[in-house]
Amino acid sequence: MTNFPTALRAREYAWMDQDPSIYFNAASVGPLPAAAVAATQEWARLRERPQHIPLALMQGAAATARAQFGALIGADADEIALMPNTTYGLNLAARALPLRPGTILTFDGEFPSCVYPFQALGSRGITLDLIPRVNGLPDEDTLVQAIEQRDDVVAVVVSWVQFATGFVADLERIGNACRAKGVFFIVDGIQGCGVRPIDVHALPIDMFASGAQKWQLSPWGTGFVYVRKELITAIEPHDVGWACMKSSTDYTRLTDYEYDFFDDARRFEVVTLAYQDFAVANAATGVMLEAGVANIAAHIEALGDQVVQWVQSRKDVRLVTPADPARRAGVFAFTPDNLPAMHDRLRAAHVVHTVREGAIRFSPHLYNTSEEMKRALAVLDS
Ligand SMILES: Cc1ncc(COP(=O)(O)O)c(C=O)c1O
Hints:
Elements: H1 6-12, E1 22-23, H2 34-48, H3 55-73, E2 80-83, H4 86-96, E3 102-107, H5 116-119, E4 126-131, H6 140-149, E5 153-159, H7 171-181, E6 184-188, E7 207-211, E8 223-227, H8 229-232, H9 275-291, H10 293-312, E9 317-319, E10 332-336, H11 339-348, E11 351-352, E12 354-356, E13 359-362, H12 370-381
Parallel strand pairs: 1-11, 3-4, 3-5, 5-6, 6-7
Antiparallel strand pairs: 2-8, 7-8, 9-10, 10-13, 12-13
Helix pairs in contact: 2-9, 3-9, 6-7, 10-12
The chain binds pyridoxal-5'-phosphate.
Pyridoxal-5'-phosphate binds at residues 85-87, 111, 113, 159, 163, 188, 190-191, 211, 223.
């Protein structure tokens, strides 16, 4: 794509050229592209008079969402269940996988979505062990050794990209260790999904959950979980509702009470979906697929290179995120000696960022330019 991201930014994020702020906060909330704002307005108008919304339009929006979310990660539509966010997908993994009593492993420092749903399994004789950090980063060697050497491990859950450090886990390595021991492998994908290429079919991943509200540039309350094809009919939903059942597509059969789950991942969709929000998500995901995940990743990597080079030029700033592009995605964290001063300077210059776990976090996306990154780094040098 020759003029990526300039043309896309002009079309989808025209406000960014008029607004004083530089938006480096996709790791918290992704801004809706113009196509998604238009879809919001269109669906609000439809929803005002629901009699004009054919069932096929609602079901079509859901089907498109499954297909498009799947396309972001190399999954088929029938392996995708629509969810309101990441944590529901992770709870599904915690509750629906046939876990025997034993230990689940994760990294210390993970976002709590990888922790609480699994800590909640104590009454089933399952405990969660945290692999301690080394120099503030996940210790993948120790995790893999534990999977290989211990016989009590029943599942591993990690985030693909960590929320605070930006560390990218080697899903192939961890997954292979899990597969060799018959251990379930569960991934929280929200901080990487859509901005880093992945082919879940080529990886030993059992379940992969992502909310779409951040990097996927979609409304709050949208997300999905991928369930590996062979697992879908082998497990049953933990929460059971009318929407899990085959009969839910035919409103004339509702009171037949046929207890027969869908044979695809729709069996994990429990209730009436947020059709409106998924329709908006479809517009956003369409923009991302048009740009191409690999192109987005390359663009963000170049923005990250600017951060890495800048940190390396400063004696008073330490890079938290690994410098190696294979180990970073869109989250760039660094700790200046005088963090409050740099935080204030960025705020005064309208550089939208966050502070997480004692580090400044930049999370640029497809709409940001290298010029913006240069300006933000110059603010820190001033
Ligand atoms: C790694 C990770 N998982 C999950 C979430 C959010 O979870 P949910 O989508 O369930 O609200 C975040 C948000 O910051 C996150 O960084």
